[in-house]
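Hi U.,

Before I forget, here's the chain from the pilot set. I'm dumping it here mostly so it's searchable later in email.
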Amino acid sequence: MNYRVDSELYQEVAKFGAKDMELCMQCAVCSASCPLSTGTNAFPRKIYRYLQLGLKDKLLASPEPWLCYYCGECNTDCPREAEPAETMMATRRWLTTQYDWTGLAKRFYLSETWELGALSIIAFGIIALFYFFHGPIVTDRVSVNTFVPVLWIEIGDLAMGAILSAFLMSNAFRMYRFIMTDTKAPLSLYIAEAKTFILHFLTQKSWRECGEDRGRWQKHFILVTGYLTMMTLVIVFIRWFQVDDSNWHFTSIFGYYATGVLLIMTVEMFRSRLKKKETIHRYSHLSDWLFLILLFLTTLTGIIMHAVRLAGWPMGTYVMYVIHLAVAVPMLVIEVPFGKWSHLFYRPLAIFLAGVKEKASTASGVDVEAVMAEVGDTFMSCLQCGSCTSVCPWNQVSSYSPRQILRQLALDGGTEQTVDQAVWSCVTCNACEENCPRGIEITDVAKAVRALNVSVGKIPERFTEPLNSLTANGNPWGGDREKRLEWTGDLSIPSFTPEHEYCLFTCCTTAYDSSPSQRNQIAGRALPRLLEYAGISFGTLGTQESCCGDPANQIGAHDIFSGLVRNNTDQFLRAGVKKILTTSPHCLNAFRKNYDELKGAVGSEHYAELLDRLLKEGRLKPVQTVDRLVTYHDPCYLGRHSGIYEAPRRVLQSIPGLTLVEMPNHKENSICCGGGGGGAWSDYPVEQRFGVLRIEEALRTGAEVMATACPYCIRMLNEAVTELGVEDQIIVRDLAELLLQSVEITEEADTAELVSVGLDQEVF
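Structure:
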């Protein structure tokens, strides 16, 4: 899912005529009203989404813009009165310029001077060519084949056909590479689907289903048959078509048909567009007019030339012949590979490739009944409103659609790519569920699909090591169980006994922090010091602890998770634990929601809640000034998953001198750091890392410190600071570190120890 975000895409496509893109609210009424939009190729909504998010790669890989036949139904039904049909048309123009490696298509579409100038230059070139290199001029009778031998025309036709075909086919190859970039299909499938291309090229078959007015398809079909007939006569039968006598050849019948069709249909379409008989003709582009004008003039000059020939006027015939070619050749050279005419080839090719792509896709191996057995059938009631997709953090850096996953599950029509593989990108931040109007537990649906994948051995390679380590060592970071307490350094934390009020449960990400700065271990040592200072009785199970199982649970490795739950449950109950104090919101979530035997017997609390209560009771007294501008990052599993938003803020606000500023996305709208759901083991490009996105947002507030209360967040955000190279502008610190910096230090607590832990120097 490594799609680049191009911030200029929206403005770039707007230059080609896209209208009101900012009005789209992703309601999908346009897709629902489009008679050609299907579950697998839904448009125009999808195209709007790509444009709004700047997903250039996704747009280039989409055949959907070419599946639209510009009927205008979407314009009529849009509740925001946007212009989806115009946006689809503009997108096709833009795509034409992207397929064209010469860059000429872009110049012609964006500059009337370039397009008209190119047409004029070629026209004058044709005139000059005949002026200097014509054959003998016979004036006592009409002799076109003497003035311009038919062999010359045949050679010219073949040469021009070869050159134009080379341009068009090379552009088509680029189109093929864009659309099929992630698809592997056997040659036999391409051969089997070739009939689709031929059928749609000759008939524009899908247009019959587009809109209520079938007359538009009929007119277009008749026009195309006339054009193809004339092209065939000119290229294949020119020797019998270009004659100087009155001998009749059967090809004349086709010539009469083509001439009549081209003349009548172009006039009718010209009148319709000129009078704006249809609402979709309100925004005609120059290329739309040239398409009709040049075809009309080509036909008209051909008729006049033959009329003059039949009238026996030699010079008039030769002049009109040159004028006819001076119109026809520029039209073919410019408009076929670089302009409006190219859609006659690109559209059937897109339909062909879309069919190949769909049939080459492997059907999803997920049993929908099994998903419902795991999480219930609430997800089947999805309204397809797209709220989940709109709030998903992925859509700020790339493209991801929980809505599509739910839809394809409900239709039981997903593929391995759109369902089985797509769920692995979810970071389980719960933003989708928080905003779902139907209350669908979308994260649980994703985890259920993951679990079904895991059950048949389909696990992304990046998760192999952490899962193996969880099984062998009781942690996902490859650390030895015997070294679980090395993070404590010089601190002496007693072993837990039933007399202790709390059992301190340390996150594996803290215990086995292998980062160069060891920021999590430094942060981890702040909390025990605060607990000791407040007189809290606590101990640890030490090396008997195993991971809470959150990584295995989120990945879907149920067997591994069940084993960890069993081990920890036995340890807690055997030791007589009554309260678990967690340093990680992920551990808190696991204990509260997934440890059934602990419910009602053993309580769980996150340290932010405890510190907040200790401050309120006066057992911790922040007195030293921390004169810094601080912003707080809400961890997903502390905020959206556990509903704890205010306690960490009250802790920060209790520190003298500290000024708390909020980022635009905070509390329920906080952006995930990217570490949840297995994200800590993913290796996405820097521009697609949520931590980078979050640090950039924090920098815009002017904050010097980003505080948080989750080991995963500390890890991911510190990596982002390094990746951005902004270590001199902002630092990431744990909530407990900042509080320890400010609490009253008694004579018994050696101030030098504070420095040795690194807080005094490393915080600021």
